[in-house]
Amino acid sequence: MIQDLEALYQDLHAHPELSFEEHRTAAEVSRRARDLGYETTEGVGRTGVVARLASGRGPTVLLRADFDALPVTERTGLPYASRNEGVMHACGHDVHVTCLLGTMALLARARDRWSGTVLAVFQPAEELGRGARAMVDDGLYARFGTPVVVLGQHVMAIPAGTVACHPGLAFAATDALKVRMFGRGAHASMPEAAIDPVVMAAATVMRLQTVVSREIASMDRAVVTVGALRAGTKDNIIPDEAELQLNIRTYTPEVRETVLGAVERIVRGEAVAAGAQQEPEISTLHTFPPMVNDEDACVRTLAAIGEVIGHERLTDPGASSGSEDVGVFGTSANVPVCYWLLGGVDPDVHAEAEAAGTRNRDIPQNHSPFFAPVMRPTLTDGVTALTSAALAWLEPAPRPASP
Amino acid sequence: MIQDLEALYQDLHAHPELSFEEHRTAAEVSRRARDLGYETTEGVGRTGVVARLASGRGPTVLLRADFDALPVTERTGLPYASRNEGVMHACGHDVHVTCLLGTMALLARARDRWSGTVLAVFQPAEELGRGARAMVDDGLYARFGTPVVVLGQHVMAIPAGTVACHPGLAFAATDALKVRMFGRGAHASMPEAAIDPVVMAAATVMRLQTVVSREIASMDRAVVTVGALRAGTKDNIIPDEAELQLNIRTYTPEVRETVLGAVERIVRGEAVAAGAQQEPEISTLHTFPPMVNDEDACVRTLAAIGEVIGHERLTDPGASSGSEDVGVFGTSANVPVCYWLLGGVDPDVHAEAEAAGTRNRDIPQNHSPFFAPVMRPTLTDGVTALTSAALAWLEPAPRPASP
Amino acid sequence: MIQDLEALYQDLHAHPELSFEEHRTAAEVSRRARDLGYETTEGVGRTGVVARLASGRGPTVLLRADFDALPVTERTGLPYASRNEGVMHACGHDVHVTCLLGTMALLARARDRWSGTVLAVFQPAEELGRGARAMVDDGLYARFGTPVVVLGQHVMAIPAGTVACHPGLAFAATDALKVRMFGRGAHASMPEAAIDPVVMAAATVMRLQTVVSREIASMDRAVVTVGALRAGTKDNIIPDEAELQLNIRTYTPEVRETVLGAVERIVRGEAVAAGAQQEPEISTLHTFPPMVNDEDACVRTLAAIGEVIGHERLTDPGASSGSEDVGVFGTSANVPVCYWLLGGVDPDVHAEAEAAGTRNRDIPQNHSPFFAPVMRPTLTDGVTALTSAALAWLEPAPRPASP
Amino acid sequence: MIQDLEALYQDLHAHPELSFEEHRTAAEVSRRARDLGYETTEGVGRTGVVARLASGRGPTVLLRADFDALPVTERTGLPYASRNEGVMHACGHDVHVTCLLGTMALLARARDRWSGTVLAVFQPAEELGRGARAMVDDGLYARFGTPVVVLGQHVMAIPAGTVACHPGLAFAATDALKVRMFGRGAHASMPEAAIDPVVMAAATVMRLQTVVSREIASMDRAVVTVGALRAGTKDNIIPDEAELQLNIRTYTPEVRETVLGAVERIVRGEAVAAGAQQEPEISTLHTFPPMVNDEDACVRTLAAIGEVIGHERLTDPGASSGSEDVGVFGTSANVPVCYWLLGGVDPDVHAEAEAAGTRNRDIPQNHSPFFAPVMRPTLTDGVTALTSAALAWLEPAPRPASP
């Protein structure tokens, strides 16, 4: 089976698709799900896929895998690297799909050992924070039933062979903003005729650093990243405007409000300092709510996973600065979520980098063009964890009456 | 004839082409030049066109018009605005072509009144500073003869009806640089795993302002513009690198050396401060030498122009911060150049803005997406000036012997 | 007795003295300690005072109050505001001295109820992080005996009536650095002859913001403050150098190393970018180790305090970003420390500001020129807490044999 | 006589005094002027001195020397270096005084060869731009007569043996501003409770660089220097405010207005971006009008100087970025001014540095702590130039009637 998983993974990895454009992936997933005996529905929440397998009465358990990729140019040099120029599974969603399909196969094969309904949810557009909401709004629960729990996992740059889960507030809230700053273009030789938006944007980037360094208490947590800054097309033309894309992570509503207020104040103040004659435009690209793991659900789920992979391989990583919209599946139906991290880095490599104090530097993190989880034991561990977790919530099948 | 000029101008304006891609323009120019009776050669210096008309013995006079456009999205709203999305004659080279063709028509018609050779040179890729060099290197003078003078003009945002010429050092030297700064990408939520190239680039832009503000004496002149800054594609990915495009104007070799040295020092210093693990790459996009108007040639040429348009309409604008590669035609053959500016702004609009002290703000300058010279009297003035100038250097035709 | 405490407090507050210059304070403390029957020694660790009271056999308990003030110009407008221009008890050490003297009075009066030795330590120069070390190095323990525990408290801008204590790592490590950046002076009108240290320092301050915003994981904690920046004396002279004073807070050796490394890299990189011809000088002004509260000692001490003031008035504030050298008394003798925070803000004012979300803005914090703890119930609470704590570690006096 | 001049110069140099505190200098000057036979008045314009010598009828000629020093700590290492800690004749006013006294001696001795009145004006507080105005406002002309011309000189870091004079606009206008930016202080470990004025000031300094780099045409001239930046006293206290001192040089009213407007806009915008709750305060420290040399007066004066020192040693340095209030003596009486620069650098040293391209780096300029004019031939040249100039405006004495 591991060969099947690896072949599937390599195929998915080689064919990444951007958010809400996961057409090939959706078709592939559907085909395979149907082959496994699942009732399959495509187009849920634009490009999402729902696959359902019932086995007698009992609870519905939602297993979620997100399946979109990122606008990153892959630089891993792997034989199965992306064939879609400029698009890459740099966040490992291909691992999630592979493991969920593997789990679906096991559960289908072991159908006589459990009772209830497995709801496999392949979600689009996680990177935009919009896919879970789109599926829920498309009638997910009305059409396919409400689960008792939402389970899922995310591959991360932690040692393969480990599963990490933080009960409670586990992932940050995200606010992604687009900021347009307006100057006035002119010939590069005549800055006096321009209001230079490149300088305006650069001053803004420098000042934005002070939000975290000066306005947030050191015991609070926040991240303000300018992920993209684009202005101008040519050396000899001062452009009319500059565009910044910001990604903001916070953990509490108070800190979120402080950060968003400071960002807006700085953007507007820097435009004033630059003499801009048009107000900057600040718009929301997407937002993620903070993601909260249900504490009881975690206890139950992790007990089952630990039973199989060994309790010593479970860790608590603390709250992550990452964001996830998996929580939307829970909050919208008021059901608990348990979502964990799956190790994807060769443990020896990890240990070495840790010892050298160069972990962050030497191990490509999610979203890096070099991000490359090892297939073994990541894929089988992911299948094992997800299957154990699902079985912890499905009911054991009633023993057949003895003849 | 003015209708012809305007129709020609509108056609050129509506079909701008980027540097070294001026195929339609070259074909159009060739066709018209041939119709006027000129021997015409295309493909000189890649896309340049040379048109030649001899009339007896006498000096060769080179009349030059550049004909490439810019990667600017036109926003003038004119009925004859660019039909090529993202490309615009924002520097007025379409005026230059129109006026040279108009002059060629007049000179062809008046062929019996002068003696010598008219060499009309339609130059590509002035915006890159490479077209004049390309034509010279393609054997311009060996193939078409060496002129006694190089004449040309540039439409500018000064009052239409005026001709402005600065003898001596008239246009700045330009150095256009591309700077790549290398960081290390990571997920936006984990800046600690990244070396953020957006911040590195922003700090560099701010520091580059000090080259002019602190390192150049106030009596010297220099401009350092960052015309383009591009880093990242998405809010939630810290990119691997940032790219800056710089445009630098200087007037003396000493100041040029100081500025280039300071720019390099700052770029490298900021990379060090950022902890970059790869040196920045600084490469030259293009350079223009300073352009020097021959003083004697200016006296002779301007006398002729003033005779026709009125001496009171001639002004000396001082040295411009603009750059021009027209000088290459002179220095490579060691012949004098006289190059002047042609007014293109409605004089009333200009006077009003001047009175309000808002000239730079209210009148779109060259390279602006709103740049729009008025056709009248700009086009006829341009023809008049260039024709008068040419006749000042051609010999008068010998009087026909009386029968 | 409250009147006595208040009179003492007001006298101390009106006569603040800088670190290692606490001569009047030391004399006043000595006089009062002797009046209470304590053996008193001045000049321990330059200006420190040790007062000792033994009562039979039993453990020695060290009670510590720091007594230096800050170079701050008081702006409270209080009738008992500082009479020493430019010096202020802006950190509340006058509260500590008052409460320790009050405790000493109670313990002296109740001498028959306990057995052991009270070692009251009045420490100089806490603000420099050097006073505790100076006293220890001056033979504190050899001369006056080694205690079984070190107890102390710090008044803070939390509600009066509460006592806050965080067992474990309670206060950050501090590194205070002086950075001298060297340029080259010149007349203000000739920046081209200078290497401007004002710009160099400003660029450095901006870049230093990125240490916390970009180089530290959001789950780690660090503060990098430039508390002082001084360059130049006059508008028309570009000075030769600039001086920055940095204050850095960290909680783990790894983060401390990262931050110190980044600060040095940035300072040196910015000097390179500026073209400085002399390397910056970075020197250490003072350092504080992180301060660790012994968990068992806290349980024992807080139980005793809670017994008297009410357990509901005890809180755990988490680790503070402040620093303290009280820990040196513990680590140098390998004995446990329990150090807590004493509320000093009117609880109604605090609640109001908390409700309005303006706590940090409206309530003057330690080191502010407006810092002004309320005397009631702060002073009596401080005496109560410290006395209860001391008695928890002294032995109860043996019951007198019945006749 | 050269020995006398050198002794005088060394004495003045060793005893520099700040603006409006030139008490010893004034007394010394008065004593010597009286010894030479001049009527002398002290206390004109606070600390100024006027010395008058009439010889028959004829025009009054004003010879001006400024005599204040600067708050600079001398680092020349000269045997006659400043004995007043922190004060230095770093602008060479001691040369001016020495040369004027030398000239006064020559004119007194040659009293029978000229007719008219010599008005020697020793002006205080030139560095503040207030001394000339103070003397005029104190009734200079009403009390001592109105001159036909104002003559004076300034020693500069140009080759000794040369005299440089630019007719017309010769010195820039100066505006010196004090900017106070208000934040909110707090403990260094709690930036979230502060509005950090150090960061606010640093961001402002960086943004101010863009006034010259982006808002002034390269053909215009302007200098914006932040000569002093002072905030905070201690590493662990975030201060309440920061103070900047700016020195601004411009040459035309239009550019001056643009620069002052941009500075104010930037200061206010940066305060907004910082979230300052109090508007910055911008106040004027002093201003100098631009100084205009009368063209005719220069022709007459320089002819006389050239006659004596050799016309080949006269140069035109162009307009200086320096400022001078000597012009106030001319404009307030509507009389012409001729003011020139006197070389003070060893010509060989100058030539060497010039050849190496390191003039600005290797030769200490005015206001540098290393500024040290060579005494020979500077002092005698200064006396010669000033005496020749004075005699060019005084009338020759009528020939004595023959007996």
Automatic annotation (TrEMBL), chains A, B, C, D:
GO BP term (any one): diaminopimelate biosynthetic process
Classification via Pfam families: M20_dimer, Peptidase_M20
Domain Peptidase M20 dimerisation, residue spans: 177-271
Keyword match Hydrolase: yes
Free-text cofactor note: The Mn(2+) ion enhances activity.
Keyword Transmembrane helix found: no
Chain positions recorded as Mn(2+) binding sites: C91, H93, E127, H154, H367
GO molecular function: metal ion binding; N-acetyldiaminopimelate deacetylase activity
UniProt signal peptide: none
Keyword list, A-Z: Hydrolase, Manganese, Metal-binding
Cofactor field: Mn(2+)
PANTHER family: METALLOPEPTIDASE, PUTATIVE (AFU_ORTHOLOGUE AFUA_6G09600)-RELATED, PEPTIDASE M20 FAMILY MEMBER
Protein name per its UniProtKB record: Amidohydrolase
Origin species: Streptomyces nodosus
